[in-house]
Amino acid sequence: MNTPKPSPTSTPSAASGPTVPCPTCRRPTLYRRDNPFRPFCGERCKQIDMGAWAAEDYRVEAPPPKAEDTPD
Q1: Which residue windows does the record flag with biased composition (Low complexity) (predicted)?
Q2: DSSP letter string over 3-63?
């Protein structure tokens, strides 16, 4: 008798934990302590994000410094 095998992507939701979208590729990924790349799906997406930080792609807007704040 052939019993169907579960596909690699199907896991019981109660046992697997919460699923969140990967910040880089938006694929669903498990947000658990045993996931060393969380919130990313894997090392590749984690490295892509780190490269964006290093290239200063993420910036926080700030007003220009006042004249009294600049060194002479």
Answers
A1: 10-28
A2: PPPPPTT---HHHH--EEE-TTT--EEE--TT-TTTTSSSHHHHHHHHHHHHTT-S----P
The CA distance from 63 to 65, in Å, is 6
45 is in an annotated binding site: yes
User: pTM surpassing 0.85?
Assistant: no
The residue count of the chain comes to: 72
Please give the domain boundaries of the chain with CATH numbers for all domains: 19-55 (3.30.50.10)
23 contacts 40 by C-beta, under 8 angstroms:
yes
pLDDT tens-digit profile of 5-30? 444 444 444 457 899 999 999 999 99
